[in-house]
Write a structure and sequence with these properties.
By secondary structure, the chain is of the alpha+beta class. It has one domain: Jelly Rolls, CATH 2.60.120. About 25% of the residues lie in helices and about 20% in strands. The strands form 3 sheets. It has an 8-stranded mixed beta sheet with strand order 1-2-10-7-12-5-4-3. Strand 1, helix 1 and strand 2 form a beta-alpha-beta unit. Helix 1 packs across helix 5 and helix 2 packs across helix 5. The longest helix has 26 residues. Pfam families: 2OG-FeII_Oxy (PF03171), DIOX_N (PF14226). GO terms for molecular function: dioxygenase activity; metal ion binding. Keywords: Dioxygenase, Iron, Metal-binding, Oxidoreductase. It comes from Oryza sativa subsp. indica.
Amino acid sequence: MADQLISTADHDTLPGNYVRPEAQRPRLADVLSDASIPVVDLANPDRAKLVSQVGAACRSHGFFQVLNHGVPVELTLSVLAVAHDFFRLPVEEKAKLYSDDPAKKIRLSTSFNVRKETVHNWRDYLRLHCYPLHRYLPDWPSNPPSFREIISTYCKEVRELGFRLYGAISESLGLEQDYIKKVLGEQEQHMAVNFYPKCPEPELTFGLPAHTDPNALTILLMDQQVAGLQVLKEGRWIAVNPQPNALVINIGDQLQALSNGRYKSVWHRAVVNSDKARMSVASFLCPCNDVLIGPAQKLITDGSPAVYRNYTYDEYYKKFWSRNLDQEHCLELFRTTPTDTS
């Protein structure tokens, strides 16, 4: 029901079904606020250095910010503005798009998977499938009137950026430049427009709890004024402070598998705050459902055997959605030899 959306009213107190048990709270005072994730300038004319920086970031953090990424700044500002306009629409307008069915390609929903959760997350989101555009665009919101044009233009730009990054990531692994793009097939693309309203008690809840991304690559456009993304590094949570006009890139589970575990799909989470609402737009590049995914043959050697078995993305995605968001890394279920947890 659309009345579950938290963006439709102001809240003076946190409803009980959003309060995390004591052991699962964000402990915001423990977060490293002055650490940083790597920043890569994609306009660097030294290709070898650029590739090396991308590879180092994928190994060390699984996250990096990109500057001079080619997506026009005016477009990114328009995307955030029209996203805010969408969430300001009257509740009866938004109700037309509401669904809690994870299988729906286009839907407005709340939290993560409200059918399964016992505790909800302080987030409303619009989920859009984006490729091929002509198939999905007619079902996208027609209000605000500029929504479809702005978001579809952004989708095309982000897809091209993702493929350029695939090239650098492939090279950094010692693979052919087009390896990742080819092996993942005719890729799907979807988007989550995330809205995190002001929260009366941010210490007690999450916008999204710790999770890894099940897809191949995520490109995140963040609100420049309001931080909220945090990344796990060596057991500590790091606050990601957005660089002006940067986009944040993170490695998804499929690239960790393809790299034979060299590159990390790391735990990350979204926290909320009491002063301001926050917006983020996450774009996901996903393999074809029936494509076979596993470590690149070139990365399997006597000294570095295959860490993961081969599987289809369809098999992976179903497993991911059947679990809770914050359970063990879903990739653990696809290891060639189970990890010793004794």
